[in-house]
Amino acid sequence: FQLTFPLRTNYMYAKVKKSLPEMYAFSICMWIKSNASPGMGTPFSYAVPGQANELVLIEWGNNPMEILINDKVAKLPFVINDGKWHHICVTWTTRDGVWEAYQDGTQTGNGENLAPYHPIKPQGVLVLGQEQDTLGGGFDATQAFVGELAHFNVWDRKLSPGEVYGLATCSSKALAGNVISWAEANIDIYGG
For 128, phi and psi rounded to 5 degrees? Predict the structure, then answer.
């Protein structure tokens, strides 16, 4: 199944039923399709008490796609708003804040010093399709995701390049996230 966000609203979103645990590393992967411009908006946002931007993926206005961790930002070299399905993955480890970005199974960028030594905090709210300014709310239509989203998975470790390639090529051994896996039972839909 997939989620479709046909237009920019401040009320259409999906909420993942469980929170993230404390994480010292993560891999977040998804299939995404959008031709929205300018910017496809916010595929997902994770807010915790006291920090609305704990973990956010956003492409806003004419900016490149960015990942935010605890309000720190890395620009991601994704080119995906061509109306075709793309597989994207972002991995990160708290040690030195090392991150990697993969598009369609190939690493397209990497860096370090992104929120180093800051573990991802637990007890938050994970929303697909909107950017949270407050815990579980404060949505702004200009930051809403427009497009389609599927196979959103979260791991509490860094996937290897081979594992990412397997996901992007739909190999028979493709993994499901050990923190959050893509299943209809795991999300609640709001607003349409």
Answer: -105, 130
Share of the chain above pLDDT 70, in %: 100
98-103 sheet: strands from edge to edge: 3-5, 147-155, 25-33, 86-93, 98-103, 106-111
Q: Which domains does the chain have, with CATH numbers?
A: 2-190 (2.60.120.200)
The Cβ-side half-sphere exposure at 136, using a 13 Å CA radius, reads 11
pLDDT tens-place string over residues 181-191: 999 999 999 99
Which SS3 state, helix, strand or coil, does residue 67 take?
strand
pLDDT digits (tens, 9 = 90+) for 60-86: 988 999 999 999 999 999 999 899 999
